[in-house]
Amino acid sequence: MRARGQKYWTWASTDLHIRNHDERLSDRTLINVQVRHCAQEGTQLFIGVYGDNGAMLLEEIYESRPGETMTQATAWGVERAKQLIGKPSAAKGLKLPPEPLPRKNPRTPK
């Protein structure tokens, strides 16, 4: 279980849909990147890095990523986390699947 820090709890919102990306590195460090879209600020980003035992190593919040889609912000966040902890990136520019348009609202029944 992750020990979330104050930055996470300040950033967390139950009102906004998030996309979550977890990546476990070879040394068992966990990178957690979450993105959301806010009507006022646009794409927002949370980066968390946690040790093998779930202890928080670092957290960062970006209130606005102007001009970036949620997919682009996720890729940037993963690379930023690796840079912050001094881990080489496996590939320059994380390749994530494109976001299909229009996006479906997960809260809307089928």
Order of helices and strands: HEEEEH
Share of helix, binned: 10-25%
Strand line-up in the sheet with most strands: 1-2-3-4
Q: What is the 3D form?
A: globular
Give the total of beta strands.
Answer: 4
Mean pLDDT: 81
Radius of gyration, taken over Cα atoms and rounded to an integer in Å: 14 Å
Provide the β-strand percentage band.
25-35%
Specify the biggest β-sheet. 4 strands, antiparallel
Unreliable stretches? 103-110
| Oligomeric form | single chain
Helix tally equals 2
Which structural class matches the secondary elements?
alpha+beta
Separation, N- and C-terminal Cα atoms? 33 Å
Q: How would you describe the overall organization of this protein?
A:
The chain has 110 residues and is of the alpha+beta class. Helix content is 19%, strand content 29%. The protein has a 4-stranded antiparallel β-sheet with strand order 1-2-3-4.
Descriptive terms for the model:
disordered C terminus; 4 strands; 4-stranded antiparallel sheet; alpha+beta; single chain; 110 residues; globular
Question: Secondary structure elements and their pairing?
Answer:
Layout: H1 6-11, E1 18-24, E2 30-38, E3 42-50, E4 56-62, H2 70-84
Antiparallel strand pairs: 1-2, 2-3, 3-4
Give a quick summary of the entry:
The chain has 110 residues and is α+β, with helices and mostly antiparallel strands.
